[in-house]
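Appendix C reproduces, verbatim, an entry submitted by the partner laboratory led by Prof. M.T., so that reviewers can inspect both the input and the predicted structure.
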Amino acid sequence: MKAGFVMLMCLFICSIILVAYGAKGALESRHYNTQKVATYHNFSEANPSDGWYRVKGCQLDLTLAVEEQQSNVTVRAMVPVFDVRNPGQRTTHVLAVMDDRPTMKTLNDMDEQMRFKSKQELQDWLIAHRSEVQLKRDLVGLVHKGIYMPMMDLDSKFGSLTDMPISDCSVVASGWEPDPAGARMKLVLGSIGMIVPLIAIPWMFRRRD
């Protein structure tokens, strides 16, 4: 009797996990199946918490990036995003998580200039590489709320640059695309999670009898 109860509880727990996984798949299928296109202004006003977006008219300022490093090499960065049509903009709640090779190379080159060059040489380098440091382009990726970089207090690092807590900002994982196959798999697992108790419970009662 006790063994049967333990088995039943294990089945319920497994079913709950699978159903939760399926619900996540349903959410991903709903919010990430179609790319939405928005201007920077409209995206900033909406401050979305999820979705697959192309945000047009962005300027990404790599000089203000917060970097994640491994062995003194930048491997990922969170970059503030501004409206390319508003050069006087000083705060934002749109951020991009970037790990593409060209951006990482620019950040590592800039770090090297900061470590080994004079202030004037750094300024000359920034002017010469302005188009690489001030990226003017559409921002494409998956939007999330509360993407954090390990072991970092991002609110203190960005300071007054963000006009709301990082957890409330719209964070675009640049270059990320939806995974339809993964979403479908989660839906299948969720369906299994709902079916298993319907089969297992009558079977266990018959076995007890």
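The beta strands are 35-39, 51-61, 66-70, 73-83, 94-98, 134-144, 170-174. Additional entries are available on request from the coordinating office.
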